[in-house]
Design brief:
Low-confidence stretches: none
Distance between the termini: 28 Å
CATH topology of the largest domain: Jelly Rolls
CATH architecture of the largest domain: Sandwich
Radius of gyration: 18 Å
Order of helices and strands: HHEEEEEEEEEEEEEEEEEEEEEE
């Protein structure tokens, strides 16, 4: 099969830092008492930052998606990166502790979010993709999720990966999500990096205290670029882009993917000798 490539991977190598951030960096979604959505045309992804404060926040249905409810033709994965809260979906209440995940299937008509305490509000990160089937909703308790130890202290990439929403646990149409936590003393979230020909990915960085940053590397392996990322900021990774980063200290991030292949191991490694 011949691959008809877009010109944009080559164009992105020459973008100014401001233009690069405009294309691939997402910030400002978590505002107290508000729900903010961002549409990314790659894989028709919708990202959401929902931070309820004084009362429940309803999941909005933007006019742009031309549906009677947000999940009429979509599914959503949600990870709480804040304090304890609740999600109510068609009358069913899910109590969401820190780093708990929730999968909401196609066809749910009403979704609202609430925080247990205004002093420690919940922060719900959402990734949504088109869905062709209606799968049941699932609440994933982080404390009951086994983590996979990866990397080494010698490589400065010791980390624990938690698969929260994935096909080995329960079926979804596209969305696959999880959390990776970098160990104290390590800085890299992966090395060597990789690309995904059959899906796109989004990283949401969190647990970065003030003054701490992550240098996120992206682009084609032979034409790498970087973005400076801070707490509760995200990076968009199209299928042709590597995605890895190094921080000024340890941190955590939510990774979420959508596309035609949900096989976690389906990736194209870019060895360090290949990177430029």
């Amino acid at each position: 099969m011949d691959i008809h490539e877009s010109v944009f991977p080559s164009v992105s190598a020459n973008l100014s830092p401001d233009d690069l951030r405009r294309e691939f960096h997402v910030a400002g979604l978590f505002q107290p008492g508000e729900a903010h959505l961002r549409y990314w045309d790659t894989d028709r992804t919708i990202l959401g930052g929902i931070c309820p404060m004084g009362g429940p926040l309803a999941l909005p249905t933007p006019a742009e998606i031309k549906s009677t409810s947000f999940l009429e033709r979509r599914e959503a994965g949600i990870v709480n990166v804040g304090g304890p809260g609740t999600v109510i979906a068609d009358g069913v209440e899910y109590r969401m502790a820190n780093l708990d995940a929730l999968y909401l299937g196609r066809g749910i008509t009403s979704v609202s979010f609430a925080s247990q305490s205004q002093d420690s509000p919940a922060r719900f990160w959402m990734q949504s993709y088109p869905a062709h089937l209606a799968h049941g909703s699932r609440h994933v308790v982080f404390e009951k999720t086994a983590g996979e130890k990866l990397g080494s202290a010698a490589g400065a990439n010791q980390r624990t990966l938690y698969k929260l929403i994935h096909p080995a646990a329960f079926p979804t149409c596209q969305v696959v999500m999880g959390v990776t936590r970098i160990a104290e003393g390590s800085v890299w979230n992966t090395m060597p990096p990789h690309t995904h020909m059959l899906r796109s990915e989004v990283y949401l960085y969190f647990e970065l205290p003030p003054g701490r940053t992550v240098f996120h590397f992206m682009g084609q392996p032979e034409k790498t670029r970087h973005l400076v990322v801070r707490d509760l900021e995200a990076v968009l990774s199209p299928s042709w882009s590597i995605h890895c980063g190094a921080g000024t200290g340890n941190y955590s991030f939510v990774w979420g993917m959508g596309g035609e292949n949900q096989d976690f191991a389906d990736m194209q490694r870019a060895e360090t000798g290949q990177l430029l």
